[in-house]
């Protein structure tokens, strides 16, 4: 007879085998629901992978250096292959891109609330997770392979983007993450370094969700 | 026979009478769905009245003056009586309140997307409305009548707030609005002055929605 412990071991073994199989190196975390509060990095990556829009805050040149938050769409990868880096499709007709070209210090904020998983919990309750990524907003060279990846990431999650007016000169931007602020439970923000965040799931089969 | 023009006049007359009836001075816009793109101020007030959370951006003292966006709950009034001013319930255990006490320049950003009325339209599409209020974040004196109004506004839309831990020393804050950025259609942001925004619906029976 096979015991539950054997089954659990077999399942873990399969996950490790799957993650080290040819081609699996490129795979990124596929989440099956919200990670537990004990898995802060997984929660941060889950929020980045599940949301499709957030608020990008810049230092406003129009408003003499005041902060300015703007609703933008983004993608951190094609569905199921998020890498944690938010890519944006912005035009300098909009103040956020203009601001970032003058001062690249930006903040990008996501909430669990619109995902529907907070239930009756208030959006400000610490158990309804919130993620703020701070860093530099950089334009991505349209001739680079990263631009191809970013376009694919953006256009799969935001299909109408590829038909947006050419004469608005949309450009691809990304955030180079320097600071991560995650609240997903009581007791204040969880410490997550940019490298922990970006490397999550890359070589950690047992942390992957299927 | 009563012509359609007569009926329209009678309806407008009734609205004016209703808005000038005793007690109606305190009434605020009650919206029945999203206002049309030709009614920018109504759309801004609708977004403020319908949402329950947004992103508050500050100049971060922890991050050497970079912008910092944080998910917060708010209320601009009890349901059906929004006044457009966002009230917040914040603790200085959280960086946003600490930042604002050092530099009161803040930005508060709302999206139509989580309301569900954008349908299949992308969150960044200009027809999916976005509102950014910029101004000074001020603490509201807890002994004032404004604090009573703000508490009532906050606690009706966020019932769990009144049970949040006393030892976290939550305080009521409000934004003194100085600049309004609304996108609800093609063609760039709509010009709305703070007084247009705040006075909307106050003495304009014909602009009220029921």
Automatic annotation (TrEMBL), chains A, B:
Span of the signal peptide: 1-26
Pfam family membership, one: CREG_beta-barrel
CREG-like beta-barrel domain span: 35-198
UniProt keyword annotations, A-Z: Signal
Any Gene Ontology CC annotation: cytoplasm
Protein name: CREG1 protein
């Amino acid at each position: 007879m096979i015991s539950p412990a054997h089954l659990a071991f077999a399942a873990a073994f399969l996950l490790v085998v799957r993650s080290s199989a040819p081609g699996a190196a490129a795979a990124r975390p596929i989440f099956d629901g919200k990670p537990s509060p004990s898995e802060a990095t997984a929660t941060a990556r889950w929020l980045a992978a599940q949301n499709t829009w957030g608020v990008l805050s810049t230092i406003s040149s129009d408003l003499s250096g005041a902060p300015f938050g703007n609703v933008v769409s983004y993608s951190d990868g094609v569905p199921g292959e998020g890498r944690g880096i938010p890519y944006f499709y912005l035009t300098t007709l909009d103040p956020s891109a203009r601001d970032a070209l003058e001062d690249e210090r930006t903040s990008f904020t996501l909430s669990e609330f619109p995902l529907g998983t907070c239930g009756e919990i208030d959006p400000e309750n610490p158990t309804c997770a919130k993620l703020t990524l701070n860093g530099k907003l950089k334009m991505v060279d349209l001739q680079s392979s990263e631009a191809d990846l970013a376009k694919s990431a953006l256009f799969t999650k935001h299909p109408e983007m590829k038909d947006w007016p050419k004469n608005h000169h949309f450009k691809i931007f990304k955030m180079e993450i320097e600071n991560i602020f995650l609240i997903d439970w009581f007791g204040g923000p969880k410490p997550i370094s940019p490298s922990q965040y970006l490397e999550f799931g890359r070589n950690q089969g047992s942390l992957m969700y299927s």
